[in-house]
Amino acid sequence: MNIQNAYNNWSQSYDNDENLTRDLDARITRKTLERLQAEVILEIGCGTGKNTGFLAQIGTTVHAVDFSQGMISKARQKVTADNVHFSTANLSEPWPSADKSAGLVVCNLVLEHIENISFVFSEASRTLCDGGFFFVSELHPFRQYLGRKANFQRAESRIEIPAYVHHISDFLDAARQNGLALKELHEWWHEDDEGKPPRLISFMFEK
Ligand SMILES: C[S@@+](CC[C@H](N)C(=O)[O-])C[C@H]1O[C@@H](n2cnc3c(N)ncnc32)[C@H](O)[C@@H]1O
């Protein structure tokens, strides 16, 4: 199943499935970004809008994009704030955003599905105002080395969504090559992860 179809399918249960990674990401995103404010926020790969309602509280305007119609239609039902605008876009193609138009670009649990993350970093950098921030939270590559990837249950089958491994150095190289400076790097564990490698890694980059 390709990535887009997989997310269209998963959209039916994404919010209700047990998913420690999704829940941890929601917590650390709020913890990290609650001190920020931005006139315009671009959320890439917004999914069902798990983080979009929160972003609407710290941004004057939020543009939220995703390439799955299924995911975005759930987000539209859930997040009805007037300052949020949803649209469909493929992040591996030029983004529908103007140069220097956003103070914050936010990306949660998306880049494992994108082969060329350098392109995403170049589009984030192009879209950000000078001094703007790019927040990235992803499944930690240490987990990917163990074979973990986004997956969901359908009937008797566990469906794994195609994923690419990006090493920590890949994120840092892509940022540096696109004029984004690392301000923060954190590794995160869920309470149930004792003795295991970190579940998530997050980066805050500044243009
Ligand atoms: C695991 S979900 C995360 C959704 C949301 N950010 C969250 O944290 O709950 C990954 C999302 O990335 C989207 N996605 C993956 N590849 C994409 C691409 N090339 N262009 C746009 N969206 C993409 C999927 O459709 C899906 O909604």
Descriptive overview:
It is a single chain. This protein has a single domain, classed as Vaccinia Virus protein VP39 (Rossmann fold), CATH 3.40.50. Helices cover 31% and strands 30% of the residues. It contains seven helices and nine strands, in the order ααβαβαββαβαββαββ. It has helices at 3-10, 20-33, 52-58, 69-78, 117-127, 141-145, 168-177, and strands at residues 38-44, 59-66, 84-88, 102-108, 128-139, 151-154, 157-160, 181-188, 200-206. Helix 5 crosses helix 7 (168-177). The longest helix is centred in the N-terminal third of the chain and has 14 residues, at 20-33. The protein starts with a helix and ends with a strand. The mean pLDDT is 97. The protein binds S-adenosylmethionine. S-adenosylmethionine binds next to helix 1 and helix 2.
